[in-house]
Amino acid sequence: MSSPGSTPRRMRADARRNHDRLLAEARTVFEEQGAQASLELVARRAGVAIGTLYAHFPTRRALLGALLRERQDDVFALGDTLLTDQDPGAALASWMRAVTAHAAVYSGLADQLLGSLDDTSSELYGACKRMGAAGEALLGRAKAAGAVRQDVTADDVFALISAAAWLRDQLPPDRADRQLGLMIDGIAATAPARD
Amino acid sequence: MSSPGSTPRRMRADARRNHDRLLAEARTVFEEQGAQASLELVARRAGVAIGTLYAHFPTRRALLGALLRERQDDVFALGDTLLTDQDPGAALASWMRAVTAHAAVYSGLADQLLGSLDDTSSELYGACKRMGAAGEALLGRAKAAGAVRQDVTADDVFALISAAAWLRDQLPPDRADRQLGLMIDGIAATAPARD
DNA sequence: AGGCGAAAGCGAGGGGCCCTCGGGTTTGTC
DNA sequence: GACAAACCCGAGGGCCCCTCGCTTTCGCCT
Predict the structure, then answer these.
(1) How many domains does chain A have?
(2) Do A189 and B178 touch (CB under 8 A)?
(3) Are residues B29 and B70 in the same domain?
(4) Is B167 in the A-facing interface, judged by CB distances under 8 Å?
(5) Per-residue pLDDT tens over the stretch A128-171
(6) Which of B34, B58, B82 is the last residue of a domain?
(7) What is the pLDDT of residues B82-128, one digit of tens each?
(8) Which end of chain B is more exposed for a tag (fewer CB within 10 A), N or C?
(9) A149: nearest CB among B149, B184, B195
């Protein structure tokens, strides 16, 4: 799974070791303190000089991007599965919930994601675009099935997901889920009238 | 309008002068750079030492709170007006739009607002609570009129407003407004079926 | 007018964090 | 082994937060 094959480029042994340590420590530090945690702390914990961290990941976003890449595969897999779901409306809703959860692994991540949208070269940019594309397919199906309003765009879905992810690290998680539910109802063709 | 009467405590002339200068510069700096702008810059622009800034406003939130207090009056006034509006559903929607705009004057403000919720002593906390109370009344009317789902709470409204405010400084403003519209539709008793 | 105590202002300084860069090490290869 | 390339190191410049002891200014009172 984590075989050296991801990049064709072969790294020197020490480089690869530091690279992996950095990723591992970054993951735990970001989990503990959120996506704006001190990079110097990450380097320290990884037993590596700060310059080495920057040599491997020139920017915080690059580091986050590397961290997210693995998890993303799961989300895309789910997306494919959902594309064949019998209920296109429910499928889109599930997708939105999954992506929201994914975009909220580290608190403060949503800001970084949205912030990377105008930075086309950013590591995170590509990820966001792919997400958008996957979501678009699900949205199309949901609209065709009449489950979702015709005037809703993929950008809307993306924005709502981001907002929900942001809420998730401001509020207790159950409340945040509830808000996402309300947003999902907002794009539905018919209100679920659950009052 | 800015007569000295706000606090019963009389300030020394130089104190009041610096206080006002700080507020004025803070306003423009936050407008230019967002709510996380450097406080040292604010002090510098106000022609005041950094210690003086902290003497007046012990925390960034205190400064933001002071800045927002004036604007808040407008929002509360609007709230009162809307309470007598003939269409309770539309009134709630207008109020949500107004509060969202208010909570997005400075980019990054939404984070500060939500962050101050557990800090009961914070300057911003009181403001948020008052907002919540005002919103609750409008929500009650909207529910009674059958314009809004019965299961929606004031906390929901508050959360959606916050999320919309956050979106507002991540996205072009018109897009953010659109998202808020979707959220508003989400809490409506019946989907507006505008597809 | 002048003096005095309290209120207010000042800004150096300790602590952090970000990021760069020149010089010292390690690795892998021949 | 030895050499060049790849890699690592960490001091240092820049910016920021916030505190605290010392100095200045204000405003009242004689």
Answers:
(1) 2
(2) no
(3) no
(4) yes
(5) 888 888 899 999 999 999 999 999 999 999 999 999 999 999 99
(6) B58
(7) 999 999 999 999 999 999 999 999 999 999 998 888 788 787 888 88
(8) N
(9) B195
